[in-house]
Amino acid sequence: MPKVSDLFFKTAVVWFILGIGAGLQMAISGDHGSFPAHAHINLLGWVTSAIFGGYYALNPAKAERKIAMIHYGLYNVGLVIMLPALYLMLHEGYTALEPVVAAGSLMVAAAVLIFALVVFSSAGVRSASALSAATR
Q1: How many domains does the chain contain in total?
Q2: Transmembrane region positions (predicted)?
Q3: Are 78 and 108 in contact (CB under 8 A)?
Q4: Per-residue pLDDT at 10 exceeds 60
Q5: Whole domain around residue 27: which residue ranges?
Q6: DSSP readout, the chain?
Q7: 56-102 pLDDT, tens per residue?
Q8: Alpha-carbon distance 102 to 39, whole Å?
Q9: Region of residue 5 (left: phi > 0; alpha: psi -120 to 50; beta: else)
Q10: Are 36 and 92 in contact (CB under 8 A)?
């Protein structure tokens, strides 16, 4: 498995554990005010990271490109900035953290655009004719 796939999958599991923890905290306390943060942790952290890992596993030539690791790093730095700030903003009422959430969100958005560039680029993709020629 390509390194970036392995990293995305491992990081996804960490986000999944954190998302479950946030859900348990809400259930135990009876305070569900931070449910949007819980949803973001699970969807952006767990699910989307696992999807990125799957894409790179299915496209190893693209996974070996430097831009794939840039995507991984920027996406996860953005999540690490955004998600705890969002949780504290919603759970504790620290509205002053809104610019931090915005900064992390912009980093995540930039990483998604990088992923789109990876997906739509033809670099690292072998044409069908090249594949059939290689198997002869």
Answers
A1: 1
A2: 7-28, 40-58, 70-90, 102-120
A3: yes
A4: yes
A5: 3-134
A6: --HHHHHHHHHHHHHHHHHHHHHHHHHHH---TTHHHHHHIIIIIIIHHHHHHHHHHH-HHHHTSHHHHHHHHHHHHHHHHHHHHHHHHHHT--GGGHHHHHHHHHHHHHHHHHHHHHHH--TT---HHHHHHHT-
A7: 999 999 999 999 999 999 999 999 999 999 999 998 889 999 999 99
A8: 17
A9: alpha
A10: no
What is the pLDDT at residue 2? Answer: 96
Band (pLDDT 50/70/90 cuts) for residue 130 is low
Contact 87, 22 (CB under 8 A): yes
Amino acid at 136: R
Reply yes or no on whether the pLDDT at 105 is more than 90: yes
For range 10-28, the mean pLDDT? 95
